[in-house]
Amino acid sequence: MMKNILLIFVFLLVWTSNIKCDEDVTSCVGEDVNDLPDTCLSIDTRPLRIIGDVEDSVLQSKLKMITKITSGVEVTETEIETFDFLPNVIILTSNEGPALKFHRNKKLARMQFPKLEQLKGKEEAILFDHDQFPTLATQNKKGLADLVRLREVAKKTAGSEGKVTCNNFLKVIKNEPPQGSNDTVLWVLCAIFSCIILACLLSYAYEKWCKAKKDKDVEKKKDTQKKSTKLPVQENPKNK
């Protein structure tokens, strides 16, 4: 009798300890966000999936602590306008597909990852699959700024030897692409990126030119003043 009681006690002890471990898990396998533990700090093996109507409060409580995702994120058919639910993620990569995949989100116009330092996918870092973001981003300066920021992170991740181009940074799949081109929106975004970068370079060059011109004018003025002080003072003939 005592032996059976002891076995039951040991079984209950092991069972309760396993429950506690599950509650305190910090390294999680990717799954639907609704089934994700609240204590995850990293996600691997399978993508983190956000599908359909999910309450903002659920996304915030489940994702706010995550700092590392190495299996990608998939956001599908949501009503999200600004994706800012991974405020602490530092590493966002995938060896199986894109690091970020957005599919049929009708209102998505912004993406914010304030602490992101690494962004890399198997082929492209970001995939928009029949998603509205590329269209809305071309009408929204802040949305374009978000993409420029992500491109800089992807470029930094690739390092000095890696090249980040429009093709390996993002890919756009549309429902009805225009005849003769399947990547019209992609090239529009690339053209906008190029214009922004060119504008920054021209602005920097103009500032350098203005500074150099100002310094030259100052030096010229100093030289003129020095020459004027060295000239001999001529006496007035009337004073002789």
From TrEMBL:
Keywords: Membrane, Signal, Transmembrane, Transmembrane helix. Residues 213-240 are annotated as: Disordered. Residues 213-226 have a biased composition (Basic and acidic residues). It comes from Caenorhabditis brenneri (Nematode worm). It holds the Pfam family Recep_L_domain. The chain crosses the membrane at residues 185-206. Residues 1-21 form the signal peptide. InterPro entries: Rcpt_L-dom (IPR000494), SPS2_domain (IPR053079). This is Receptor L-domain domain-containing protein. Residues 57-128 form the Receptor L-domain domain. It comes from the Eukaryota.
